[in-house]
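Section handout 9: paired folding examples.
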Amino acid sequence: MKTNSQLSVTLHLLLHLADSASPVTSQALAGAMHTNPVVIRRMIGGLREAGLVHSSKGHNGGWSLARDLAEITLLDVYHALGSPRLLALTHRADNPDCLVEKAVNASLGDAFEAAEALLLTRFGNVSLAALRHDVHAALGHVPTLCADGNAA
């Protein structure tokens, strides 16, 4: 089954930005995330369009948060990513005239809709500030992003 870690990766990126006192370059973020700067730039474009981050140019330029973490929820980030499919499971649609397939699809459809609604509600109730608090509590200190892109 194919998985999608885009939401997790994006939250990780946003929390690194939150812990930086100055704008962070795509290169530094890529180092912290163990990926290519192009991947970061692609990902962050949707966040900019959603008003979650902004960029500054020049010698001390880079990416920074555009809103306070308490104002950003997991749901905001999910929508900024284009609201990707939440569940990998789906129902069969090979024979729409089959009564068994209709019954199975109706039951699964209801369950999938309920699960997605519950998950989206939960996303709307979790702020990035709460997530950041959990990270800091687990670490016992506020992480910083080093010049080499690694967290300290």
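Moving on to protein 2 of 2.
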Amino acid sequence: MAFKLRITGAAIGAMIAGCAGFGVAQAQDSNVTLRLSHNLPTNNALHYGVMEPWAKAVSEASGDSIKIDIYPAQQLGAAKDHYNMARDGIVDIAFYLVGIEPGRFPIVSGAEIPFLVSDNDKGSRALYEWYSSYMDTEMPDVKVCAMFYDGGGSIHSRKKVEVPEDLQGMKIRSPNKMAAELYRLAGGAPIQMSANDAAEAVERGVVDAVSFPWKLTTSLGADRVLKYHMDAKLYSLATALLINKSSYDALSDKQKAAIDQNCGADASEHMPRAWTEYEDEGREILKNKEGHEIVSLSPEHLELWKAMSANVRAAWEKEVAATGADGARIFDELKSKLDSYNASY
């Protein structure tokens, strides 16, 4: 006897409901374009070696339903405004220098104390894992996707700087509060400004020295005036990739997963590698450039700078204590995390 398929009204209703649900799922994965903003030019490795590969990885993980348009060189806003830009939805994603607004984020600024980090990649993993305990409290307005260190910076100057006293009376561009405190203790006159603004200030004679990574010094043209380059990683800047919460919440589950798998500790460790290599190349460029001198520090001179950095840490701990937190304990947590990855200076 032939089998006859009987389709009931209930079955038809279920099929229609299923198709409708499928349509909703499809709509959730509709194409979306997100805007990502950062402060450096397109010839910097942050752009082509970090941001572009990250945007591509997110797009591929989403099945190409996410497109990320990148706006470099402060096109959409000044470097110091990028946290607010991500918070307020002016952009969907922002690259942010966590120390660019002195006093705003006191806990994470401790990650920029001079002579702290030796390995940028492992150090970046340590940074993210350490700050995971504090980001929801200190940066509650945004989704912190990743955190990583830049290539590390030193002092590039019009005259030779070897010991702290050599900075006496010099106007020096400082990238953050921690470096500024170090230079102030040495007798310098630190001026905090963005890298782009600092390069112009060098040309105009407004500053006598800058704290820059190596390659940034040449890519922004500061080496046309600054001929002496201290051969030491005085500091590394802590940075963050921030996502607007509403932009993230509007994504489908699959699209959120595409973002999430490119955020976190693993992403934080891998993202800065091209940037680190790029900055390391800059040392070789300046080393071989006519009229330039790489200033090596003796162990004794290096200890002078480190001793001064201990005073910077003490001042930071007092600032954090004023907020009700235990600065010494928080720093020990960070140092222990860096030590666990062999990433301490």
